[in-house]
């Protein structure tokens, strides 16, 4: 609004409409400032140490808002008596000064408010730490219940404050670190409850004490990291040294090499050689790993050797070009640059394949959680020898998963994903020994219900992290394939004039702002349905199933149509949208064919229902195709057609949400009588090549579990009252 005022054109003739518009903008600015300042003043009254600074900034902002309102009070300009009245037309510099003062004072208010938020988080953290110290020293269960109730309430407050802060962070790296720390606090709060209760029940048990101490230590580290992120500082003033990944090293190296096209003298050959040496040192993490296949190891070593040779050739031509800049030499330099970059791309592709195929194999192999199940059974039996045997197996599994996280970090592609890999590595490193100490405690006290519950909690944390790794692997593959971890959009995108000769005569039309506003609600419904469909497809064990494939394709197309309603995405014009609707309907018809094929496999009782749903889908898709192909002349008719296409797409997606769980249920029912349990072959001996686009079995939302925490607190309070 301020920009509108300052950039308005000074025209000698001013219509009443223009004058009224300027006055409305000025009044709107003043009202907005008034609301903003009211909040600032309320914050000042609650925080006495910053009250004076905040009050001054609020007064300045209010004064600037009022000045802008006065200078834009131009409705009465046509009357002679108002000739002496100073306005935006007679004193534009006054508006500029007022605007600068307003922006300056508003910024000051925001900075002061931010300081208060940081102080609130630090104060909340200190309260949590103080209560944690009390919990550590508690000796009776009754006292523990009372203090844990207080601790739970304090953690809920801390969760709300840090959640708001995480959403406000602009730095994606900090946001990822905050999410990781909050995830640790969420899981550890539940662990702290059972670990402390176990220690109270078995005070002389060393493994129970080790288990509890580990939880407290990890929570303190997570709390400290939250404060580091919030205050943007580290203890003792030391700088954080971020580990360098192969991807980031290759990206920087290629940028330097390609920069030689513009400037032959901006870096030395020693710099390039050093950068390549660092990258090749990191590839040793792959070649030295016991879990890298022989084939991948050989390819990485060959490409490393080739990269050195390509760089030598590049440096040779580069040095000649510095001395003699001939056309032939510059062409040779271009060839050397291309060959060097191509070699680095191949190396990048090879390490990605090595890391993701290892991760897919490991996640598939450990998906049955056999070691955890065995630990629970042998613990309840009090079989110390068997527990010792399975703890060794869990330690081996931990080493495999830690190595997997380290290799995935090298190929994660973005800093937030690198941080997620580091967090996953830490989780496996810490949770493994905690499961072992919990299992030992149970084996020593096999009849203890609380020791059994404690082991369950730690095993759930391990299983949860494995589930998260499936999602992380998918996101890493999305980045590698250029999807940047965002929702997939259908790749067969329409282009006006490409698919149909008749389209050349049509003028591409975009929705204007008013039309986007009208259709926003329908678009949002479509967006929610795509999330539901994605959630349903991820529950399927067989991600290669034809029904799942068609469902995912339709969800992706529906999502791109939703983006169109917002004026975003790859569908730029209404003609793009109509063609996308046709493809969507075709995909739906293919899905109906897959449903007919499925009906031949299911029991006779289930067949009529499935065929009925398939016919419904065919009918809806035909209606959508008719609507998408119908001609529409004029703006109003085109918008009506857009509205109808999205409405019918929404109806198909609603049916799809019902179909997917039904088909999944029928397949499981059909399979139930035929399946038998078979021992899985050792993953190292028989490595099964799985697609790197494996979908996670369950989608987890990375949020601090405030609801579950509040439920725990409620239960503890109820227990205290009893």
From TrEMBL:
The family assignment reads: Belongs to the vinculin/alpha-catenin family.
Listed A to Z, the keywords are:
Cytoplasm
Primary localization class, coarse: cytoplasm
Q: Name one GO cellular component term.
A: cytoplasm
The protein's name in its UniProt record: Alpha-catulin
Q: Name one Pfam family in it.
A: Vinculin
GO MF annotation list: actin filament binding
Q: Which InterPro entries match?
A: Alpha-catenin/vinculin-like_sf (IPR036723), CTNNAL1 (IPR030045), Vinculin/catenin (IPR006077)
Q: Where in the cell is it found?
A: Cytoplasm
GO terms of biological process kind: cell adhesion; Rho protein signal transduction
